[in-house]
Amino acid sequence: MAVMGVQLVVSLLTASIMQKMSPHCSFARWLLCNGSLYRYKHPSEEELCALAGKQKPKAKRDRRPNGVAEDKPLSVPKDINLHLETTPVTTVDALVLRYFLEYQWFVDFAVYSTLIYLFTEGYYCLVDPQKEMNVGILWCLLTVVFSFKIFFMVMHHYFRSEEGGERSVCLTFAFFFLLIAMVVLVVREDYLEFGLDSGLANVSDNLEIFLKQQGWEWTVPITKLTFKLGLVALCSFIGACLTFPGLRLAQTHLDALKMAADRPMTQILLHASFLAPLVVVLMWVKPISRDLLLHAPMGKQTVQIMSDSAYNSTRLWTIVALCLLRLAMTRHHLQAYLQLAERWVEQMKREAGRITALEIQRKVARIYCYITVVSLQYLGPIILTLHCTLLLKSLGDYSWGLFPEPTPVSPGVGAAPARPAVPSAEEEGGEDMQATVAQITGALGAILTPLFYRGLFAFLTCVDISSETRLMAKVLCWNSRDLSSAETPCWASQSLSVP
């Protein structure tokens, strides 16, 4: 342990536990399959025939002019008195669903990543943070990367779909978020206090000093423009990925409110989880947060209510509380989605004409088969926002409020980056490797300072939150149920055989 370090040992132990305990104990499986969620079973052909008042006919075949015989599908009136049976969602039923294993692995990895981060935060309360590298940051970065992978995996099917307009919707909102990101980056820091411009200026100055020390000439400073173009492209990608999660969350929010009509406390929590992202985004708008809320007039003078460090800690705690609140409302939203089967049946009863039994079975089964993707669409943005906030705290040298917040300094502006001593010929290969790693880490630490990380992850955190907020506001204004109910694709029911 002395050679490897406490954090690395804990990380390896956690990875081993995650691999061994996943088949037996899983937070993702408990969240979805603990019996509190119930699904609707599709009716059999015998039940539909009994409701229609006739016996199940024998297999009929229609003769076509070319001599080919085809089975005539069973059809029933749409206004039959159909009531779907309910059954709890169990692990045996969920294992056959598409993307269930990806959902379980991703959510469990995010849970273990958060636990390791909490351990490192407690460990740093006892040990000097400068002595060891924060392994919790690496786990959070991996979680962010895996979140983008999950979003891309789901969006990939929308682009392959030929029957709906999902591809056009994703491209439209990608272009929309591209314009929004360009507008946000143009706004001065007097209005949006991300600190991105000051962070990029700090990186540019440090990079210029570092390259001059290495004997390289520093030419045209295009770092800022290149980095901002990369941020705009990343925001466009995030906006396209969070298009359908935002639409789905807005629709399930409306349905969950109707389900909790007789529970006012649950409705308050649902409204709070829905409006909290808007409050968090406004905390970075300087005229509203700093100038209006933090300063109280007392006579002819203005008194600051809390210090800047306390306000920064309050923003971090607010985002963490938002993520925990949304996590607590997970089952309400998932159950509201499963209720789409019953609402579709009620809507079918009000229509005239006939419908085939196979179409009824597919409609009902497709909603349940899509529950794992809906869970990823709901939990993915929460996990992404939470771990971006944890990275903002650690890499930006913020504080949770327990200790004074250090002032971010730039080691490359005032002085040259510290170079480790050149290893002698008698040193071992392990010491040479450690010296090389220390040199690379020192160079990166001198260029990428906490001031830069503050601007970067504050911007990304607000992008993650506001991507869903704008879409949810639009759906609530339109109040269009078809936007989300029509989003369930055909491949959702391919993993479950319908008799």
Brief summary:
By secondary structure, this protein is mainly alpha-helical. It has 21 helices and 8 strands.
Mean of pLDDT: 78
| Residues in helix, % | 55-70%
Structural class: mainly alpha
Estimated share of beta-strand residues = 5-15%
Order of helices and strands: HHEHEEEEHHHHHHHHHEEHHHEHHHHHH
Number of H/I helices: 21
- Major β-sheet, in short? 2 strands, antiparallel
Low-confidence stretches: 410-427, 480-487, 494-499
Please give the radius of gyration in angstroms. 28 Å
Distance between the termini: 58 Å
Total domains: 1
Assign an overall shape. elongated
Strands side by side in the biggest sheet: 1-5
In total, how many beta strands? 8
Question: Can you give a write-up of this model?
Answer:
With 499 residues, this protein is mainly alpha-helical. The protein has 21 helices and eight strands. It has one domain (6-61, 68-190, 223-410, 458-493). The strands form four sheets. A two-stranded antiparallel ribbon has the order 1-5. The chain has a two-stranded antiparallel sheet with strand order 2-3. A hairpin with a 2-residue loop joins strand 6 and strand 7. Helix 10 (243-259) crosses helix 14 (330-338). The chain starts with 5 loop residues before the first helix and ends in a 14-residue tail after the last helix.
